[in-house]
Amino acid sequence: MDLGTIGTILIIIIIIVIVIRLLNKKKIIYQMTSSKEQVIDASTLELSTTNTQHSTYSIWFYISDWSINFGEKKYIFKRELGSVSSLDVYLHETVPQLSIKVKVLSNDSNFKTCTLSGIELQKWNSLIFSINTSTIDIYMNGEMVQSQYLEGIVNIDSNANVIISPGGVGFNGWNSKFQYWTQYMNPNQVKNIYNQGHGASQEKDLRVNISLYKGDVRRANIVI
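Given the sequence above, the corresponding structure tokens read:
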């Protein structure tokens, strides 16, 4: 095998590795913050291939204590276009509760709010909620804790940005590993997301070990 052929093979392999990495890349634009606003532009989020309001949101958070912004809502994230919000996820002003406020098309109200009590402090918590047109399933730490009919069709604006720690006015702690999908997730799928943990890197490390031989003798080795 001449050097030209070897070079061609290496180039092809490198291109394949790059393509695989791009295909495996998840929509995790946000990794970690502490009371610092980060904006995920709606144009970078996965787009729905249907007209239904099916979506799943996942985020990890760690609350040290309730001292910062005591007496005020402590926003984890929201979806907002201009000054109009269609999804708010926030902690209670004074007690360990978490609320998810969703915009809906309903004759009764424009918003529905789901509230979870007993949010634990000084540990990493996983929040995942999955929406199926007019219902929402909420999971804490991989387990479903609430399933609620929203009495209307969910109306989260797909053009709205995701804002994490809006205004930098958050809570005493951290957010990590925000994820978003335009599909409803069942409990097994949610469990798989939870089992991935809150590490800063979602993308698995991919390596290719290439050995080139002439006859039975290894002539070169490269790791990509």
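Residues 3-23+206-223 form one domain. Try to locate this feature in the token string yourself.
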